Amino acid sequence: MMWFDIEEPNGDLGQYWSKNISDNQSFFKTMLSQAQTLGIVSGVYTNKYMWTTIMGSSFSGGSTYPLWYAHYDSNPSFSDFETFGGWTSPSIKQYQGTHTVCDTGLDADWYP
What we know:
Layout: E1 2-5, H1 21-37, E2 42-46, H2 48-55, E3 67-70, E4 92-101, E5 104-110
Parallel strand pairs: 1-2, 2-3, 3-4
Antiparallel strand pairs: 4-5
């Protein structure tokens, strides 16, 4: 499975994504379309803030794909999830940023 990572460092547009939201939406739709044409099963990794900053608050162009959202609250559950981008429920939650396990830096994720 391939996950499209929709985020920007520090939430500032212009490094990975255009400052033009409609350009971002168009590029994203093209990526999804190409993945589908190639038979690649895809999902979207993002959070509410990044999605609305990059794609706009009313864009739901990825909502038919599984959502893996990040919210670093150390709570392995979906109890904190707020709808956005057309998603009404997530598939995976990244609930903790980099921590060390057996001398390896890992993020902690949860899914039912």
